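Final report, closing paragraph on structural work. Over the funding period we assembled a curated collection of sequence-structure pairs, and we close with a single example.
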Amino acid sequence: SSLVVAVSATVEPDADGDFFGDETQDRCPTQSSSQELCDTTGPELVVSGATVNRTRTAFSFAVNSNEAAVLTVGGRFSYTATVRRKKVRKSITLAPFTRTLESALEKTISFRLSAKARAALKRYGKLKVSLTLTAADTLGNASRRSLTLAIRRR
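Its predicted structure, as stored:
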């Protein structure tokens, strides 16, 4: 006599490699750290205390996040120039840079004006600094804040 065993198997994808099937078991198929609903909220980002130094060559601000994150700062300096008796809006792009933020610890971000920005401030008397701050957590969730600061020549 022979024994026949009927076996049926369903194989489903596991994109995040957590050994829970994406279609029937894993409520968050993009994050291996959780099988519950995905965390899609970015870090809470608080920006405060923007100041310009006395010589008008540097400025700083404080940043705080509710979770560990990587902060990317980018933006531009803009000013109004007079070219052939017409006012023209010009800008200097700030090269983006990153800093690491630790959870619930305030971090001061400081940087000097570029030589081109210092020359524009000296010549035109006023710079508008427009920054975009993006904080991304370890899961890739991001939040953004804007910071605008006016720097006037003394």
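The chain has a mean pLDDT of 90. The two ends are 102 Å apart (CA to CA). We thank the funder for supporting this effort.
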